[in-house]
Amino acid sequence: MGIVNIDEELHDQLRKASAVGCRSINAQATFWIKMGMLSEMNPTLTFNEILTRELRTAGVEAQVFRETAT
CA-to-CA distance for 54 and 32, rounded, in angstroms? Predict the structure, then answer.
């Protein structure tokens, strides 16, 4: 593991995004780095296509949610 120096403004955005995604700051940074790398390696795929592919590779299956009657 190494240390990465990032701009203070980017760190602030990272902190905010980590709260929204319920991730630690390190986990959020890892997610952004991984998605950026995958995006560069797969320039014809959208973010959602990459994320869907990665979730399927990990064995995550989509759930069908039904609305409950009120």
Answer: 14
Look up residue 32 and give its two tokens. Answer: 């952004």
Q: Which residues contact 30 (CB under 8 A, 6 or more apart)?
A: none
Please tell me the pTM assigned to this model: 0.76
Tens of pLDDT, residues 14-70? 999 999 999 999 999 999 999 999 999 999 999 999 999 999 999 998 787 787 776
| Element of type H or E holding 28 | helix 25-41
Around 31, how many Cα atoms within 13 Å sit in the side-chain half-sphere?
A: 15
